[in-house]
């Protein structure tokens, strides 16, 4: 995931950018032409890429929220109003609606 992307002053749109399919295709091409000593590393890279592609968007958004809160120094309950406030301070362009949805994703996909 490349991160949060928004347009305008405030936004309710959070876009998950996925490039795993493109990367996996490139790894498959490289694997088809690889020398025997290169194959194990490429096979491992391909397996990791394919696993990453299977992660749902909501889980990616939850991961992004946890990362933003950690960068902001927030260590409390992700479900709290304080977490919502910290997220909006860390990402001022987030609307309240978008921040609440992101917080719900983070709570639903807590590690």
Number of domains: 2
The helix-strand sequence is HHHHH
Which overall shape is indicated by the principal axes computed on the Cα atoms? elongated
Radius of gyration computed on alpha carbons? 18 Å
Q: Main beta sheet, described?
A: none
Number of helices: 5
Beta strands, count: 0
Provide the low-confidence segments as ranges. Answer: 1-8
Structural class: mainly alpha
Mean pLDDT: 85
Strand content: under 5%
In whole angstroms, the N-to-C terminal distance is: 18 Å
Q: What level of helicity do the residues show? A: 55-70%
Record the SSE blueprint.
Elements: H1 20-33, H2 39-53, H3 57-71, H4 81-90, H5 96-108
Helix pairs in contact: 1-2, 3-4, 3-5, 4-5
Give a description of the structure.
This protein has 111 residues and is an all-alpha fold. Helix 1 (20-33) packs antiparallel against helix 2 and helix 4 (81-90) crosses helix 5. The protein folds into two domains: 15-54; 56-111, no CATH class. It has five helices and no strands. The chain has helices at 20-33, 39-53, 57-71, 81-90, 96-108.
Short description:
This protein has 111 residues and is mainly α. It has helices at 20-33, 39-53, 57-71, 81-90, 96-108. The protein folds into two domains: 15-54; 56-111, no CATH class.
Label this structure with key terms.
single chain; 111 residues; mainly alpha; 2 domains; 5 helices; 0% strand; elongated; disordered N terminus
């Amino acid at each position: 995931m490349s991160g949060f992307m928004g347009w305008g002053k405030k936004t309710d749109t959070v876009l998950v950018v996925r490039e795993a399919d493109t990367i996996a295709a490139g790894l498959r091409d490289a694997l088809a032409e690889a020398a025997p000593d290169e194959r194990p590393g490429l096979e491992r890279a391909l397996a990791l890429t394919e696993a990453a592609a299977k992660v749902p968007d909501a889980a990616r958004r939850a991961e992004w929220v946890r990362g933003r809160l950690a960068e902001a120094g927030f260590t409390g309950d992700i479900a709290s109003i304080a977490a919502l406030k910290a997220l909006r301070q860390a990402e001022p362009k987030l609307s309240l609606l978008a921040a609440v949805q992101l917080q719900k994703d983070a709570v639903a996909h807590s590690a």
